[in-house]
Amino acid sequence: MWHRTDLISTLLVAVLAFATRFIGLTAPTSSGTPIFDEKHYVPQAWDIAKAGTELNPGYGLVVHPPFAKEIISWGEQLFGYTPMGWRVMAALFGVGTVLMIMSLARRLSGSWQVATFAGIIAVFDGVLLVTAKFGMLDIFLTFFVVVAAWALVRDHQQVHNRLHEAWANGMLGNSPFGPRIGFRWWRFAAGVALGLALSVKWSGLYYMAFFGLATVFADLWLRRRYGVKRYVVGTLLRDIPAALASIVALPVALYFWSWRNWFGTETAVYRHAMHDGTVPRESLLHVLPDPLASFFYYHQTVLEFHSSLTTSGGHKHPWDSKPVEWLVAGRPILYYSNTDLQCFDGSTCRQMIYLFGTPIIWWLVIPILLWSLWCVLMRSDRRFVVPLIGFAAGYLPWLAAYDRQMYFFYAAPLIPFVIVALALILGQLAGHGKVVRWLLPSRAPWGTIAVYSYLGAVVAMFVYFSPILYGYTIPDSWYESLMWMENWR
């Protein structure tokens, strides 16, 4: 149930999220132009704002689906080709991501306190902050992935309640396969979110696979729990077809929908690849209608581009990082640098912005995952299943492609699930332990003191590292004091 405390805590976290993401939103530019990978996506979004689709392959990396760039273009239509125009939607989706992390934690725990823990940690994580302050793609992918997880949790809880009510009233029926569940709007909503995630980046496929399997096995577990005799066959017959429709067919349909302007525009990238000599005559694509043939050729070139970005193939980057490093935020990535500035006292200053995970959060990733596994396997605490699946979906596939050139921003969709698991752990601590009698103004158990001390430390560490998250002008000596590890440089 939603209570007044939920409303108050959500509003407070929303204000914090809005303030942290919009402060200095327009400041870091390259002489008024986009910085870092904004240089690819912002002009492409401007093409969409003006013509409906990306026009100029001369920009180079037109290698992601168009939906996130379409969202960026909404801001550009409102505020023009300005920093506010190309960043405002990322900032708003960043606020939305924080609130969805809260909602997921609230739905799993049933506790507004745990949801507030998750919201506070999400507000003050450096990765979620920086991804929400630039006109790039990852914050949109992260938002839709968290929405999909939240919707699937709601779906599972709804189906659980339906089956429990039917069982309690003796209405499960006589079929050995169990009852039909009916249309599942929450799973449909999850499919919409997964389709939009896929329309941002192809890595949305990973979440379709993991979340699809998760919802099917959840149905299998429910049918078995409520005494369905042939629960495996019942799941195969009555759950899997609908799951395939919602988690596979619907996202694929939405993916094609995201390309609607490409099909409807004559000047889109590779739109007439079949006629301009781009596609070899011997290609089997010539058997398809021209629009589809050009569409699939476009996708073929994108796949070849991504497949070629291997370390062994000579594609190296100074800020390349591998999945093992993501577990401890071991290799951040530099987004903006302005050095050799003159300080007021005559010393040298600089402005630096990193995609940088707040260490007190990211350095706990491995212990959090291990404790979550322990809770699932040894304590049968199913609340931790969702963050574990969400993390696995965004992490394990990259291990299979370990030779590929990778960057820390690939890890952005991982941290919401770490935060949810961390909030659940803090919820386990709060209210437990021996009461500290000397504590003023009121007594509290050691567990509660530990929780609020940790949250205070998260905020303090965020403030400490804020110069490299916001790009404040600071002396070189101050910058050096922030570089705790050589691998951060």
From TrEMBL:
GO terms for molecular function: transferase activity. Its main location: membrane. Pathway: Protein modification; protein glycosylation. The keyword Zinc does not apply. InterPro entries: ArnT-like_N, PMT-like, PMT_4TMC. It is a multi-pass membrane protein. Residues 293-488 form the Protein O-mannosyl-transferase C-terminal four TM domain. Protein O-mannosyltransferase that catalyzes the transfer of a single mannose residue from a polyprenol phospho-mannosyl lipidic donor to the hydroxyl group of selected serine and threonine residues in acceptor proteins. This is Polyprenol-phosphate-mannose--protein mannosyltransferase.
